[in-house]
Amino acid sequence: MNHTSRLLGEIGALRCPHCASSLLPQCDETGRAKSLFCTGERQHCFDISRAGHVHLAPHHVGGGDAKEAVAARSQFLGKGYYGAALQTLIELSAKHIGGGLILDAGCGEGYYTGGVAKALGEAAQLCGFDLSKDAVMTAAKAAKRDGLTAAYAVASVFELPVRDGCADGVLNIFAPCAEGEYCRVLKDGGVLIVVGAGEKHLLGLKRAIYDEVYVNEGRADLPVGMELIEEKTVEDEVTVDGGEMIAALFSMTPYYWRTPRAAAEKLAALESLTTEIAFDFKVYRKK
Ligand SMILES: C[S@@+](CC[C@H](N)C(=O)[O-])C[C@H]1O[C@@H](n2cnc3c(N)ncnc32)[C@H](O)[C@@H]1O
Asked: From atom 19 of ligand 1, which residue's Cα is the shortest distance away?
């Protein structure tokens, strides 16, 4: 049976996005899980792609990052510029979650999901959700290629296709924080790790495009029913070489959409960019 589709079939905690019934795998004659079907009256069916991902977003939900944004982020993250953030996420996941079912809400193309899956090994079952089909497909292909215990589905973080109280951990990295939904899917004592931009994140990039620069404000998430158990800020400095890689970084930022053309052209003229990077980690435990 195909590795990633087998994992999807094995999760057991998945639920139908239409009627909330449990999802079970349906295999073909070779034993490959080719779809998930629900145990509800209507038996809703969801095909598992060859890449190993499945679409579990309700029909009215669309969006998520476009193909170009996904490609740019893959290119940039693949070079390891945010390795300090991944390392800290792995340490906090190992310390506070350890294993079991870990959801990555807004997983993108699985840079962090895959990294945590690799580090925790068979002790953990990672499941990434993102609204972007292109991101999820990229993530599923990488998991299949690298033999990781990670499965992926297209789904909104606000309507996770997961039964109540099933997850040991939820990761939420640079993606919308659906606090109430994360609390619903976590077991009692389960852990939520939220990662956002620290004060000095990309200050050097901002200096290259704006005359006046400000530090970032912290995230104001206040998960209900949870207590903050650890906070950590990780700072580093990176030098991004080459116009293509600088452009990839720029396209990952919110400034990409709101920077006047003349300012963006200053960045495009650079061959090398040195910038601070900073990540705020907040770890919550469900009461
Ligand atoms: C800045 S990216 C971060 C991706 C990944 N966590 C990372 O740090 O590399 C934000 C991601 O959130 C996804 N996203 C935005 N709104 C979402 C929603 N309501 N449900 C699921 N994913 C969403 C986007 O498609 C995108 O992949």
From this structure: 156
